[in-house]
Batch of 2 targets.
Target 1
Amino acid sequence: MSMESEARSRQTRRAWALSAPALFLLFLAAAGPLMIVLVYSFLLPGKYGNVEWGFSLDGWRGILYTRDIFDGTLKLADAHLTIFWRSVKLSLLTTIITFAVGFPTAWFIATRAPKARALWLFLITIPFWTNLLIRTFAINEVLRNEGIINTVLTRAGLIDAPIRMINTDFAVLVGMAYVYLPLMVLPLFAAIDRFDMRLLEAGYDLYASRLAVLRRVILPIVKPGIVAGSILVFVPSLGAYVTPRVLGGGKNMMIGNFIELQFGQGRNWPLGAALSMALLMIVMVALLVYVRAATKGSNPHG
Amino acid sequence: MTEYAIEARNAVKAFGQGDVAVRALDDVSIQIRKGEFFTLLGPSGCGKTTLLRLIAGFETPTSGQILLDGQDITALPPNRRPVNTVFQSYALFPHLTVAQNVAFGLQMLGRPKAEVDQTVERMLALVKLEPMAGRKTSQLSGGQQQRVALARALAPTPKVLLLDEPLSALDLKLRKEMQVELKRLQTETGITFVFVTHDQEEALTMSDRIGVMSAGKLQQVGAPREIYTTPVNRFVASFIGETNFLPAVLGATEAVLGSGDALALNAGGKTGPATLAVRPEQVRIVSAGEPGSLPATITGWVYFGTDTHVHLALRDGTEVVARLQSEATGDSALTKGAAVGLRFTDGALQILGD
């Protein structure tokens, strides 16, 4: 063996040794727990929670089917499908709403003078200072039957009975849009900040209307920011737990609450574990489809 | 029908309000003829770009009118004016290919696809960029980007093409090439070009007519030769080419210089203090004491290759520069401190307004 290759292999060994702590931590904190959840999803539920060692596919089967208590046959679980559909629907709507509100906001901030811009960005980050639970209860305070909106409307004599908003999908949507808005605004701002405003004049000069400039010039160029913001909002929305719990009540469950239920009252850890893995897969597939679609549009001739 | 492609009538553009308002454009009226290569020339901040932006529609005048083909377009937004711009920064769309950039204007006008494709091909051929059609603009050199910007602005066949210092980002050699190229494009397409620059040489070589601007006002409009040989005032004379300024007092048939020397000059009835201008190439050096010549002393010279600039001083110290062909002079003929005579070629002296 030549001296050179010996030195190189020694260098490789040292590189591995140096990165070992980081790799160990990564395994312990990320891959490890995930493996445990994966293993649990193939086990039997214990009587008082926990799991019993014994291979079973019941956890995975339970995602879509329920076993009839009387004759033991498998039926499609409508309730589960409703929860999945509500989760996906509310997450998509949250993404759309945060984009509709966040884009003008980000544009406004990016077009301010540098000093004012710093102040506006600072204001955007203020909600992060408070606990998520408290912010969600604040929304609850606004929406509930005796809340601000209903009180004001009743006092003004506009309504006789309070409008029921709390414990509906609408309340969950409002809460999630409020909570996740900064996650949409910040990447959009970063993208718009890099946008060369002179391109707007070039667009107008070449006979594009305001709408055409938005569609054909601005949106395609800030697309990386739209993609990043949408992912940052959609992914946590899909697994949201606190917001649907506080604003949706017990009935308007989302996947996150459903998973929690299996580990708590439901005492069906394998089902909970299988649901967690399923959520992970849904997110991954959704991201793949989304990113593929988003990058395809940017180069129609490619 | 009118012979003017673009007309500005008493155009004023003020930025800011009240006492702090700055008049970027101060009562400018100008007529630009159809099919001509018109240059707006002036130092930065003189209002030439503001005037261009008023024509494009990016700014609206504080008062006054902009006319296109005799029709008032003052209130029309840029996307409804048959005018296209080549921007100083090019402002090419980074998400589109070269061909898509060129096609943009035509697509926005709703032209059928076949026509768009055909025009794009013709435009890319015109600026010699056919092999680059599928490239992203970021993969092009500065000169190539410049050509894309030109093709993109020319593709919709505008009535007027506006060019905002388009060559300023290019190096000298490329700039010379593009000057020739622009002139060729203008002749081939027959489109009216309004070209903004601060480079007097660029203006002189390319333009049919030049409008010289300073401090928000139009100082002089005319053909390059006219501007150069008969500048109307001191600003125009000094901004375009080099000039010797000689303070003098005008009489009926002669002018008395500050040095006390008298020059035969028909001032056309003007009398009193004035400034005379004479171009360095119109100054001749003769032997001292020759009749009709001014006594002067050689104070130094600078060699420029073909030319040599000889610096001279009149008796009162007024400095005069003479540009001589190096071959005709020869360094040996020049001696620092030598007493010589000065003579101006016929018709060289210009009487300037303020």
Target 2
Amino acid sequence: MKIYGLELIRGLGITMGRFITTYTVGFRRTFSNRLRGHVRQDVSQKGIFTVQYPEERLQLPERFRVLPVLIFDGKEGERWSQETERCTACGICAKVCPPQCIWIVQGKDASGKAVPKASEFTIDTDVCMNCGLCAEFCPFDAIKMDHRFEIATEERWVSHIHDIDKLHVSTEYYAKTHPKAWAKEEAKRHAEAQRKAAAAAAAKNVEKKA
Amino acid sequence: MAGGKILLNPTEESVLEQEVRRHVLITPWDKLIDLVVDPVYNWGRRNSLWPLQFGLACCAIEMICTAASRYDIARFGAELFRASPRQADLMIVSGTVTKKMVPMIVRLYDQMPEPKYVISMGACATAGGPFKEGYNVVSGIDKFLPVDVYIAGCPPTPQALLHALITLQEKISRQSVRDVRWYKPGPAHEIPVPVLGPDLIDVRRTDEIRACVAPVSTPAPPAFIAAPKLTAAAADGASVRAVEVASRLNEAIGAGGAVPSGQSVVVDPELLDKAGRYLKLQPDLNYDYLANLTCVDYQDCYELVYHLYSIGRPSSDPLCLKARADKRNPHAISLTGVWPGADLQEREVWDLYGVRFHGHPNLKRVLMWEGFEGHPMRRDYLEPYYEAAGKIFPSRWKEGRHQRAEERVPLGDNVKYPPGFDPSAYRPQPELFKPVTSKSVDRLKTDMIAVNLGPQHPSTHGVFRMRVVLDGERIRALEPVMGYMHRNHEKIGERNTYIMNFPYTDRLDYICSMSNNLGYAVTVEKMMGVKPSERAEYIRVIMAELTRLVNHFWSIGFLLNDLGAFFTPALYAIEERELILDLFEMAAGSRMMCNYMRFGGVAADLPEEFLPMADRLVRERLPRAIETLDGYLTRNDILLDRCKGVGILPKDAAVAFSAAGPVLRGSGVAYDVRRAEPYSIYDRFKFDIPSLPDGDVYARYRIRIAEMRESLKILQQAIREIPSAAGEAEPAKKLWNIRVPAGEYYGRVENPKGELGFYIVSDGTDHPYRYHVRAPSFINLTALELMCKGHLVADVVAILGSIDIVLGETDR
């Protein structure tokens, strides 16, 4: 004779077990007011799975991407300038952008000759698909994907169009959000500078000998 | 001074006014409102925002995750997702708003009682997002509804949605009952529902539309190329196989009926059904499986393309059958009689290309609506926001001053109408459905009634609609209605360069972006002759199999939701999915829209901590999670009762209807592209292809559980064997303007939902001439009516859940 409902009770047992672990495993956490800041949930995570946003938040991985930003060499709080910005207005980001949300005006000097600086740089964040191709293909490490995701606004017509002033963040900020990528890029730049210096020295030697 | 009125000069008046305001107008009642009523009222309002259970696209998945245990929107008093607009305060417009869907959205909004709030979630809902240029996309829900909070991002993560909710709560705290919209005198403000005409008609703008004239100059349309040459003999470049099949067809259907052309055979469109029947019924050919059907718009013809495979005779080579329809009055014979799986695909070709299929039982538009002007996939069809034939748009660089697409068009919106169109005289075309004329099965003297399930319905897994004819509570007929999320993937894809299509493939089946990436990469790499490095191949397999786990966890969780086990199984499943998404985020930077594969490798090598975590997940946690799910559900009496014997798809029908993936394998056909035509390095791994003969909902459920176990096997092998040479996974040279040699290719992979195929025709430039996606979710729906007939309404929900569709892929 088949007894109905046994499997049902077994299934409910699993639910009950889960219910209990939320108290036993996470007991200390449940009844302490200490929230943990940035949380990285592990494979062995049991019990309460909830991250108490906004008091706690998930640890973002370095590669996390939301909107693109432009980088200038400097400290946080400083303003970018034509000397410190890295962008050369080469346009590769605008060319690789799938929804074509990047607009660049190449700068001109006093005589009207084109210079490798952007005079206007606009990203329409309402079209941007956060794919990160611009950052991936930029040859100058000038455009990067930002981590800031708390970007809800009450209007979109002005604040969602990011112009060159709004886009620029400092290298200090970038080094903080992307420590590994920053170290790698710095090492590469350093090696490149050394190589160039060595090449220049060699050229000088050749000149001397001649 | 008459009437005691004091005349004052202006300065005195303002002084007096100030005095009066200070002493007289501010009564205790006002203070009461400011200090007591408003705070209490706003506190109540902002902490009990009940969202409407309503999702449109990819963002909806993140919205569901926000409601699940990791982010737990309940902490904000907003966990009560209401299925009825009449009980909801908050509409989270989560995803792409299409023209076909916007009348429903406006109607839902109108049905919500005041006070009501709107969050526009993601770039699409806010302004059209990456799909803005599409012909079926509304550039922002705020064109119709008043939006309170916008979130940029594609998609915003659950935490970003919570931030938006907090922003909305702050906005509510600033409100005062004295000036809120809903306590103002006068009738309630209702938004008129837009009409679907030759294009979307905003009825508030009738006069503007009538007065609007077409722009003087339009950008040049994309160029045509000529159809591939017909090659009568092998000497001209036709493959031996094509010559052989063509000569046999010529014998069978009449001389001159079939000509080889490269790898394919071109048949007279009037003789298609004869040719098809011959190819299917000849025992040594036995092409019983029509994998893909599409059309290419060439200069001189519309070329219909059929990709045929043989499941009954796995040793047969695949065959590409073609037919060329005349450009002026394109038509062909329908193949639904030979392969019923052609049904929806032929309707799609009719809808998008305007090729008429004679003999099709129900030929009408499938993605757009009846009455829409034009066939949008034709190359000379230009969207309202059309800017240039191919990306990169010249307006973006060097003199790239920002300009919204709206500023370039006369009506300031993504619409265009035929010249002289008068919206006030327009009468929308009625929807026509197949008539149902069978007698009542229950011998009840009741009328048959037609019921619409969807497009806004919690059980339809997105904006999908089923129009069912009921006899009592039994289904007599069912017609799937789709296109509510048709966001013009292929049209945009043909304008994109090859690399730009990667992030768009993420948004096809947005649960499985990694394996979509893989399918596209594999196809284009075949055309380019590129081979990724060993390490990249392993990474790809690991990602694709993790994706299969993600998808099956999700679909099993939600199948149970559909059966009425509200949210508990889904919550458990989502929890495991979240941990896999952490891995994706770690490697690719995004939880859902990974955009991780590149031609010849992956975007970036794995971070150091990836493999240890993946290994622990795959060996320790996930096997246990699958056991739990299995133990929790598989022998549960209610599940057995609801699923066994329901929605049966017999083996022959499954093949004939071109079903794929777990639906096909659940009907007893052990067919899997990973085995039938191994791609990447799947030939190195040991795994089984589970199949069950029953063909019911329960079989499909069990297939998914079994497939998850097989995926774990593959993952364990792949993680063990992956070569450790770090840094080799990226392509040797990163090129943003890759050119693909001219030619055509149909590439396919086994996605969690079934066979995902990409058919690409290249003309040698940097963007595809034709880019077609064979979407398993779309084609699996062809057999939906067959599975549902005779069952109860409640079963339809379970059957649909067991097919496991994703609307991003169904409608593309």
